[in-house]
Amino acid sequence: MKQSITLSKVTQLMGFGFLKPITVLFSGKPQKEDFINFLKKIVVPLLSIVLFIGLWQAGASALYNKEANYKIEKALADQGQLAADEMKACIASGEISCQPNTLPSPAQVWASFKTLIEDHKIISADKLAFKEKTAAMNEKRIAAGKDPITYTGRPSFVDQIVTSLKTVFAGFLLALLIAVPIGIVIGLSETLRSSFNWLIQIFKPVSPVVWLLLVFMIVKTLTKDSNSDSAFIISFISVGLCAMWATLVNTAMGVSSVDKDYINVAKVLKLGPMQKVFKVILPSSLPLIFTGLRITLSVAWMVLIAIELLAQSPGLGSFVWEEFQNGAIDSNSKIIVAMFIIGIIGFLLDRIMLTIQNMVSFNKNEGV
Amino acid sequence: MAYLELKNVCKTYGDESGNTEVLSNINLTIEEGEFVAIVGFTGSGKTTLVNLINGLIKPTSGEVLFKGIPVVDTSHERGVIFQNYSLLPWLTVGQNVYMAVKEAFPKEQKSVLQKRVADYVEMVSLTPAINKRPKELSGGMRQRVAVARALAMNPEMIIMDEPLGALDALTRGNLQDEILNIWSKDKRTALLITNDVDEGIYMADRIIPLKPGPNATLGPEFKIDIERPRDKTALNDNPKYKETRNAIIEYLMDIGEERKSVSDETYVLPEISPKSFVA
Fold it and tell me: Could A363 and B135 be called an inter-chain contact, meaning their C-beta atoms sit closer than 8 Å?
């Protein structure tokens, strides 16, 4: 029983409270209310997923038929009845060269997902083999003071995801390191707050694309004489700059709006200025700071895709763009796979931040 | 020389357009070792008076003298128990008290300070809850933490701003006794702000009513000439108690009436009568 209590607590804390009906159903004796709860919280949401897939399937097949009819009519108009019949037969046979290219069906997307996983396995095996093959030679090269030979083949889909995650975390860290200290300083001083307000208000709504161009201008010059990976640097700095505003504003607000009672306590206890900041002001504004960080992380993940797409930096964004340019028969379904993966990862990142936020926050009225 | 002295203190809030004088012409003298209670209606400027004395705010005119020196800032010599507890919710009971103790005795060793924290938490009988956070405590327990925090700093004077206002009658009585105990043991000076006349009579040497604000000022003082330790149940039959209580309440009622008659606003009641549903 104790285990199930901790289990439900963990799920609650992680924001997976919706899993509670299941844990209840499998721990101890389920009551009638538990069962109704299970229906409401689990079965109905599952039905909504089925409905979504059904609508998607219907929409996809309607678009498929429209595209197919258009192809046949075009063949009829351009080349006559014979070509039209051929085209019809070709589409019906499932021949890849003449398939209508439109919104893929759920089944196609699932197939593409499996292809991508297979592809990843092949590439990983390839990488491993390459590593073994070059291991001896690399040792010699290192001993001779040369750079080791690295694998330069095509990255797999999973590699792209990992690259994207690295970029988003680098950007998030940058945002944190810039926005939190500045936010604290600005929040503490009314003068600084009013003098920097225009800057924040002007830069906050600037589009990710413009940030990217700005960062590109600067980083391009700075990295002229080094051979480091400037695409990665450009994209993570742009992500950080785009996403840091929510944290900056929230931190400044949290620090400037500390409950007057706490300030009075600090005064009566005669805390020094540093102690006042670190023992009273910061802890009491932590919930707001973490709310800001949570928004920052989700904004970072959202703009990352667009920035990777433009910066030609490897990752999910460039994967989507390359597939779109590629135009192969399964390109569209791979794009949809990427869309779902992006969505799911974004959701998980948000949950992680929510968990941390719940751990550090307290109710404002708890001490009063 | 008086221990604490307020000379013609006025406090005004607001800007040029709409000034409200909350306190006007407050004169108060408290001797060392005395227990003084100030009774007043809610909203009569009691908290403003407390904040003036402990140094959180400065008077608009007049002076507040503590041992002959003007009060310009807060001081560890004057411990404050706030009306709304004001515990830091992210710290445990022990940490809340420790923070105060560490500031009051910066040179002491950590173990000495921790002993002190444990002692004062024990004094308000919260030892089992020392590692709990304020949200896990009841209102009475929180207020006891606030009492422990203020007293652990070993202040020469204890300033209490309706410290027991939000508590139930039983907890209230217990805490009153605890505060009286501490006060009489070390013979500290105490100032109690309250809206409860009985509480004032039970605890204080002198009761001074605060006329309701705006322009609140202190009324005539009432000496409580009942010897200590006072017994709560026997107090009810004490003729002196009855006499003082009646006098204070009568005075408060009078100024309450005065306040009503001061406002010359007349209210026009709408001419409506209940609708009759009986046909």
Answer: yes
**Encoding tokens for residue A5?**
């209590």
pLDDT in tens, A154-171: 888 888 899 899 999 999
Interface of B with A in 16-75 (CB under 8 A): 54, 56, 74-75
Distance from CA of B82 to the nearest CA of A (A): 9
In angstroms, what separates the C-alpha of A368 from chain B's closest C-alpha? 5
Radius of gyration of chain A (CA): 27
Q: How confident is the model over B126-173, as pLDDT tens digits?
A: 899 999 988 888 888 888 899 889 888 888 899 998 888 777 788 788
Tell me how far apart the alpha carbons of residues A101 and A63 are, in angstroms, rounded to a whole number: 9
pTM for the complete prediction? 0.77
Which of B54, B82, B100 minimises the CB distance to A261?
Answer: B82
Q: Is there a single domain that holds both residue A81 and residue A195?
A: no
Sheet of B222-223, strand order: B78-81, B157-161, B189-194, B35-40, B206-210, B222-223
Contact between chains at A262 and B86 (C-beta distance less than 8 A): yes
Q: Judge whether A181 lies within some domain.
A: yes
The token duo for A3 is: 């285990």
Rounded to 5 degrees, φ, ψ at B61 are -145, 165
Judge whether B187 is closer than 8 Å to chain A, CB to CB.
Answer: no
Chain-chain contact of A262 with B99 (C-beta, under 8 angstroms): no
SS3 category, A89: helix
Number of domains comprising chain A: 2
- Shared domain for A200 and A349, answered yes or no, is yes
* Residue A317 domain boundaries: 155-360
CB spacing of B86 vs A271 below 8 angstroms: no
Question: Cis ω on the peptide bond leading into residue A45 (within 30° of 0)?
Answer: no
Q: Does one domain contain both A78 and A185? A: no
Q: What are phi and psi of B28, to 5 degrees?
A: -150, 140
Clarify whether residues A94 and A159 are in a common domain.
Answer: no
Q: Which chain A residues are within 8 Å of B88, Cβ to Cβ?
A: 262, 265, 280, 283-284, 367
**pLDDT tens sequence across A236-277:** 999 999 999 999 999 999 999 898 889 988 988 888 888 899
Exposure string over B176-206, b if 16+ CB within 10 A, otherwise e:
bebbbebbeeeebbbbbbbbbbbbbbbbbbb
Q: Residue B279: is it exposed, middle or buried by C-beta count within 10 angstroms (0-12/13-18/19+)?
A: exposed
Q: Nearest C-alpha of chain A: how many angstroms from B85? A: 6
Residue A108 lies in a domain: no
Q: Which of A98, A118, A140 is the last residue of a domain?
A: A98
Residue A310 lies in a domain: yes
Q: Which two tokens stand for residue A214?
A: 């700005």
End residue of a domain, out of A49, A72, A98: A98
- Find, in chain B, the residue whose alpha carbon is nearest to that of A271: B103
Strand B4-13: give its sheet, edge to edge.
Answer: B20-30, B4-13, B61-66, B69-70
Residue-wise pLDDT tens digits, A31-89 = 777 788 888 888 888 999 999 999 999 999 999 889 888 888 888 888 888 888 888 88
C-alpha torsion A17→A18→A21→A22, nearest 10: -100
Provide the CA A333 distance to its chain's centre, in angstroms: 19
CATH number for A168:
1.10.3720.10
Identify the CA nearest to B162 among candidates B48, B5, B34: B48
Inter-chain residue contact B56 with A267, CB threshold 8 Å: yes
In a domain, A185, yes or no: yes
